[in-house]
Design a protein that fits this description.
Layout: E1 5-13, E2 20-24, E3 35-36, E4 39-41, H1 48-60, E5 63-76, E6 81-93, E7 104-107, H2 123-128, E8 134-137, H3 146-158, E9 163-166, H4 175-193, E10 197-201, H5 206-211, E11 214-217, H6 219-223, E12 236-241, H7 244-253, E13 257-260, H8 276-283, E14 291-294, H9 302-307, E15 312-315
Parallel strand pairs: 1-6, 8-9, 8-15, 9-10, 10-11, 11-12, 12-13, 13-14, 14-15
Antiparallel strand pairs: 1-4, 2-3, 2-7, 5-6
């Protein structure tokens, strides 16, 4: 790994139709002909968002009016190491055009590779874009609570929730465990019918993770692992974290995302210590993967979470 790290700001410019802007590296530059997200190096004294706005004006002629931090990711190329601060550009003036003789294309993020060779560091954010911004967590409690929960789940799925976690630490053991497996099947059927994915918390049997769409690792379970759990292709792995070390461990495991909290007070743990938004930003530093904010989150806190660099929010009452 080279000594010097080059800091780069890269913008995800998404149109209302969901298309993402990519640029082709011009002749004469390293990796010429390869496609990447627009952006460039930070100059001394610049913040990431200042550098991004300047680069996008110089490179593609747009004036950024609204942007927010997202994921900071370190990528090691053969001759250089770059720290990429990926940011969402949510407002701009002007029509993007290639001011450095580079080609520009609006692409479907899920099919971006059809445009040509993509720079290796461009691949992770394209994958992260497939993750929804809301992550609902179950609170069934027991067999008796299942009908009411399924009603709440149906309403959440109808509102657009696309990722759900089955997490039932209070469910009775013994014969009750079989009834929880039946509940899992019912929840999975509803999620899949609505185009949503279901993860199973690692407190539950590993065989269930493969029946669902992956696993959500408790922080203690993630700490015991040094590699990603073996799951079918396409399965997701999430991990809970309470500080920056646990977030970066989730990244090193190869998790697809982390959940960091508690950020704000929650009804289930009144008076418990919380990170606050500053603590969330510190915990999310150089995360290298999308991080959801957990604790006191609801539709009312989404914009605040996004502004502080969260991928989205996770919650029990606030989402389901």
């Amino acid at each position: 790994m080279s000594e010097k790290i080059v800091d780069v700001a890269a913008g995800l410019i998404l149109r209302p139709d969901g298309k993402l802007l990519l640029g082709q590296r011009p002749e004469g530059k390293p990796w010429s002909g390869w496609w990447e997200l627009p952006g460039g190096k930070l100059e001394p004294g610049e913040t990431v968002l200042q550098a991004l706005a300047r680069e996008l004006q110089e490179e593609i002629g747009i004036r950024v009016t609204q942007s927010r931090p997202w994921v900071t990711y370190v990528h090691v190329y053969p001759h250089t190491t770059v720290r990429l601060a990926f940011c969402h550009v949510t407002g701009w003036e002007g029509e993007p055009r290639g001011l450095e003789n580079q080609r520009l294309e609006w692409v479907d993020p899920a099919r971006a590779a059809e445009v040509g060779d993509l720079l290796p560091a461009t691949l992770p954010p394209l994958r992260w874009l497939q993750l929804p911004t809301r992550y609902g967590i179950s609170s069934i409690g027991s067999r008796a609570g299942l009908p009411a929960f399924l009603g709440r789940l149906d309403a959440a799925l109808a509102r657009g929730v696309k990722l759900v976690q089955l997490r039932e630490p209070q469910w009775p053991d013994g014969p009750g465990a079989a009834s929880l497996h039946e509940a899992l099947l019912q929840v999975k059927q509803r999620c899949h019918a609505a185009g949503a994915r279901l993860l199973v918390n690692s407190i539950h049997p590993a065989a269930w993770w493969k029946e669902a769409d992956g696993v959500h690792l408790r922080a203690a379970d993630a700490a015991r692992l040094d590699a990603r759990p073996a799951l079918p292709e396409g399965a997701l792995v999430g991990a809970s974290a309470h500080d920056n070390a646990q977030v970066t461990h989730a990244r090193d495991l190869g998790a697809d995302f982390a959940v960091l909290g508690p950020v704000l007070d929650t009804p289930s743990h009144p008076g418990a210590p919380t990170l606050g938004w500053e603590g969330f930003v510190a915990g999310n530093r150089d995360a290298g993967l999308p991080v959801y904010a957990l604790g006191g989150q609801s539709e009312q806190t989404v914009s605040q979470a996004l502004r502080h660099g969260a991928h989205g929010i996770a919650g029990i009452r606030g989402l389901i």
